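Predict the 3D structure for this chain.
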Amino acid sequence: MSGIQVAWHEAMSVGESPLWHHGESSLYWVDINQCLVHRLHPASGQHASWRMDSEPSSLAIDGGGGLLVATRQGIVHLDPASDARRLLYPALYDTATTRFNDGKVDPAGRYWIGTIYEPRTSPAAEMFCLDKGELRKVWSGGMTNSNGLAFAPDGRTMYHADTASHRIDCYDFDVASGRVGKARAFQLFSADKHDPAYGGRPDGATIDSEGCYWVAMFEGARVLRFAPDGKLLREILLPVRCPTMLAFGGDDLRTLYITSASHGRPATETASYPLNGRLLSIRVEVAGRPEPVYQA
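Done. Predicted structure below.
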């Protein structure tokens, strides 16, 4: 675990959605259960946070200024400069059983956000897309916990994970129209938690400048880097059991930030993973790419 640093020492309940804002040289992320959006300016150590009315899960930079925050109640515009919050797009699902979860902006500026079906009794999660001011449902079902969204640098492939099924798929993607093709298997991980070799299940993800897919393995205490053809290229072991998502940041985009969760973890685990819930960072050889900005 050489080189891993604690970027923010406050333990989060469910840290998620790290997002590097180039214009501010700052990292944003959320704590879902605490309804907080965080911002850290690493160079100065300055930190700020904003409390939302319902659980935030995903962030996007708004091309018109500020942030878009996907919350249980819908998509909220947050202006960090003025602290103003405004619900732009109410949720199109039953908020009693469902909330927004993982999300990413595609190379054309659309904001894609999947949901989590919290009863977990059926694969009833959905995928939505905010496209030039219109929030629409793209598909429904076939997953329980939508995660791992990422887009290849050329915009021709969409990656997506269903954490509950331990599976990552990739899709042909038409960046001009936003049309998603049929799924094909990219990775499938063992779901046998009694297996000594159990390595966790796929959570949030990102893509580096070489088009390789990085994924946080929840309950696996590791992040993995895969080539576009699915070959495993690198494994980084972590001092947290439940990494949730990762993002490239820093002026050279070679600092990998990793959020994690502490909620519901047994006391016996804390002894082995005392940094559960912290925001971590590590320097890597291959840079990331600037995250696309939502374009209304």
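The chain has one domain: 5-283.
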